[in-house]
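Lab notebook: predicted structure, single chain.

Context: the supervisor wants predicted structures on file for every construct in the current expression panel, including those that have not yet been purified. This is the next one on the list. No modifications to the sequence; it matches the entry in the shared construct table.
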Amino acid sequence: MRRRIPAALLLSATLALAACASEPAAVDAGPPSWARVQAIFAPRCNFAPCHGGVAGSLTLTGPGAYAALVGAPSFQVARVARVAPGDPAGSYLMLKLEGQMASVTECAATPRTCGVSMPQGEAALPAAELAVVRAWIAAGAPE
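Prediction complete. Output recorded below exactly as produced.
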């Protein structure tokens, strides 16, 4: 027996999903910090298909996210750290955020190895938010 879903329920679900994809709130001004980086990631990256659950393989927010990201080798190219403190250009996170994975030899040779730019399926982060992440890494990726 098939059940019909009430139109009001469908509308609420659609609005809830649209809210998830909406432009995140502005990131606080101030020195680069892990909290500011988390504020950038949370509305975009904290869901299961990407980085919010088992399917995502790397949680970018919450407990353990800092240790899993800073100084840890990337899954796709283990010789490149996810975040190399003090080295934004050598950090896999920045390469993914800026769509520059082709600059990594392994990625250029086999593009599928390195996946797609982040955030996946969305426009690139605004320049101001990329600058916050870059500054945080350049400052040594402080927790």
